[in-house]
Amino acid sequence: MEQKSRSSFSSRIGFVLAAAGSAVGLGNLWRFPYLAAQYGGGIFLLVYLVLVVTFGFTLMVTEIAIGRKTRLSCIGAYKALDKRFSFLGWIAAFVPVIITPYYCVIGGWVTKYLFTFLTGNGATAADNGGFFNAFTGFDAGSVLATLLDFSGPGPGFLIYTLINTVVVIFGVEKGIEKASTFMMPVLAVLAVLIAIYSLTIDGAMAGLKYYLLPDFSKFSASTVLGAIGQMFYSMSLAMGIMITYGSYMKRENILEHSVTQIEVFDTLFAFVAGLMIIPAVVAFNGGDPSQINSGPGLMFTTLPMVFESMAFGGIVGTVFFLLVLFAALTSSISLMETIVSVIMDKTPLGRTAATLLVTVAALMIGIPSCLGYGPWAGITIIGMQFLDFFDFISNSVLMPIVAVLTCILIGHVVGTKVIADEVKQNGAAFHREKLHHVMIRWIAPVLLVAILVSELATKLFGLGTI
User: Fold this and answer.
1) How far apart are CA 452 and CA 466, in angstroms?
2) CA 22, CA 15: separation in Å to the nearest integer?
């Protein structure tokens, strides 16, 4: 089953846009601005940039090289490198299985907000969380009625999931590559336009100054851990995606150049996301960056109120949620494709059948997350709602474990030369080879263990936040 003919991206730019699209997602839009505001603005931005070109580069080039070398999805790829690490491929493959369903639920929320703003009802969402709580917590009296009623999150969840299904069924070149080639430039244009508009708001310059100028007195270990965590999750690492996309990469493409371009695109988008959100929200809060809240609160509660306070806020809100929808789709498409790739490698199923199977599974597994704030709000796992629990297991536990074990496999078992040789295919140079060698063997594992310990201490024992 492992040696089926492999699809591929038609061009290097197609690969770069698809991989960058996977990296650019909801984490850039609601997590990066919040963390930047919490951990000192400019100093967080500086630390983040340093980590991207060292830590982030190391893990991304490793995963893409593994994929291109083996031409397999993550399960087969780890096994091909060392049979003793076959289990690691299964863990990596399990991560998108957990993430895809609840990510589609959040994508459904975005779909709901976009429809609300498109229909001229954006003002109804600007009620300090009332609108968000009402539709995510909607209960029509039964599971089926709740899922089908447009007052709740069910229809948005279904529509969003089916959009992913259609793109993935069309395949790597005609589906994922074409969708990414269209959506990523549009994303960039929309983000820049909103950022420019945000900077014209009265009081926005205070937020801009806080965001851009490093204050070294605010530097701490928490700043570093927060930046590592954001970079780690933002770049779609340790979930099989970059291995899968690497397996579709043509050997004549210069791997290191491609990784650098993905880094630049993802980092620029995170930077512009901060420009979009921090100055506007700081202006809205009277100059106080500490009032930028995290997660759904930022995206679905604070920003609609900011848009309502703007001239042309309805238009800006519509454009913003269109941008968020595209950003979410480019990430969730890569998650679904990773699972489909594994199924196609390990079973006789073709792309259409595998994609439909994944779609049904995503809808079924996503129902608890979809209903977790409504009819099933009283059901929790270790004190967490379903969506929060799935996010914790995938992001805070499994992904750091996969990354640490990948570092051990490459750095201390098969050797970093395996990656270096793949990067140097067709006479290409590996300019950051020494950096890669040192990072993968010694520095990255230590930082990843720190992230894992910090997240577990925070979520399970309440010992503080990163």
Assistant:
1) 11
2) 11
Q: Nearest-5° angle of CA 138, CA 139, CA 140?
A: 120
Task: Take residue 102 and report the two structure tokens written for it.
Answer: 């609840």
CA atoms within 13 A on the CB side of 289: 24
**Closest listed residue to residue 280, CA positions, set 337, 197, 164:** 197
Provide the 3-class DSSP secondary structure of residue 381. Answer: strand
Q: For every residue of 102-144, which 3-state class applies, written as one string?
A: HHHHHHHHHHHHHHHHHCCCHHHHCCCCHHHHHHHCCCCCCHH
| CA proximity to 229, closest of 16, 403, 433, 19 | 403
Strand partners, 384: 381
3-state secondary structure of 384: strand
Amino acid 135 reads F
Cα distance between residue 72 and residue 76, in whole Å: 6
What pLDDT is recorded for position 146? 93
Give me the residues paired with residue 381 across strands: 384
Give dist(CA 271, CA 29) in Å, integer: 10
Residue ranges of the chain whose pLDDT lies below 50: 1-3, 465-466
Q: What angle (nearest 5°) sits at the alpha carbon of residue 264, between those of residues 226 and 7?
A: 105
Residue closest to 87 by CA, chosen among 407, 340, 408, 402? 402
Give residue-wise pLDDT tens across range 248-304: 999 889 999 999 999 998 899 989 999 999 998 888 888 777 777 767 788 898 899
d(CA 268, CA 434): 26
Helices 255-284 and 12-23, packing angle to 10 deg: 40
**Max alpha carbon distance in the chain (Å)?**
65
How many whole angstroms separate alpha carbon 178 and alpha carbon 11? 11
- Cα separation, 114 vs 137, in Å, equals 19
C-alpha–C-alpha distance, residues 307 and 284, integer Å: 10
What dihedral angle (degrees, nearest 10) is formed by the CA atoms of 399, 133, 276, 390? 0
Distance of CA 459 to the CA centre of its chain: 20
